[in-house]
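Subject: sequence -> structure tokens, single chain

Hey, anyone have a minute? Need the predicted structure for the following. Not urgent.
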Amino acid sequence: MTMSPSVPDPDRPPPALLALDRWTWREIAHLLVNLPMAIAGFVYAILVIAVGVGLSVTVIGLPVLVAGLRGARVLGRVERGRARSLLGVRIEEPSPLPSGRQEGGVFPWLWSGLKDPVGWRSLLYAFVRLPWGVLTSAVTLVSLIVLWPVLPFIVRGLTAADRAMVRGLLPPSDELERRIAELESDRGVVADTAAADLRRIERDLHDGAQARLVALAMGLGLAKEKLTDDPEAAARMVDEAHGEIKVALQELRDLARGIHPAVLTDRGLDAALSAIASRCTVPVNVSVDLPGRPAEAIEGIAYFTVSELLQNVSKHSGARSASVEVWRASDRLLIKVTDDGSGGARMGGGSGMAGLAERLGAVDGLFVLDSPVGGPTAVTAELPWRDRAPAGSRAS
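Reply:
Had a minute. Here:
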């Protein structure tokens, strides 16, 4: 994709031109603001270090230092915002530090603040910026007056160093920060999925079995009233109620199977997936090759993943046959569902594929869809393998 000249690539800024375009003026503004920001940051860093370290032998020294490091995070956020708006440098914000209540007391709060790499790097950034701020502001002001023909090239060279400092000292804590952000996102997905499942169960109970049981109670009440006056009509109503009870019981069984099927708990994935395959509208070959049973949560996700995929095969694929393979490779549980249908499946389009991908991603799983138009379709899912807890430990 070709980038517009008005939107600079953070890693490859637009080329400097003799004409002063608006991006050059933004860079000039950034360099001129360097001096007041550098002075403020340097004074703050000196105060934090002098007061915090100087009083570290007293009770209040470490809390002052930790508070200063947390304040340095605020300075870092301001500098990241300034670089983002004036230089086009896009850097992810670091994850916030937990509060004292979340940490469980004062000492964990102090320790997390003292070992915070983001705060220390932000403080270092504020400390070393003073000479650079003086230099860049002075050079920019002089160039505006006497070197304006080559001002864009001077500005570009100075801001290149600014970009490097921001990227070097103000990013999140690399892999750890990215991992924390992923886990926070996954936690939100899990919570949303659980809430959606609870709403579905409540809706199914209200619209299905509950409504049928209410009608059954009313029918039995009418039959009781007619028992003496019209025994034959009462008998017919009791027969109808008996049929309604069977239907209600089947609906409750289907609902329980949707929550967590008994066959999965009692006999494991092989039997549970075979039961799903028997209800599919096309012949399904099931092959499960596992050395044992995985953890209950992993087993349940694998079951519902295959169930959703086979429902898609029944409803959308137009296939004549399908297959399900489940096996373990190292520390991963792998699932592959294939069919010989018309293909063309996509992550959207109401097929539920996107929801499956989110659920798997929430537990460090993977979801890969290969469905060219004309078929065949192959879906590969990976889940982390966790050994099943012993029965005694689950009971305790």
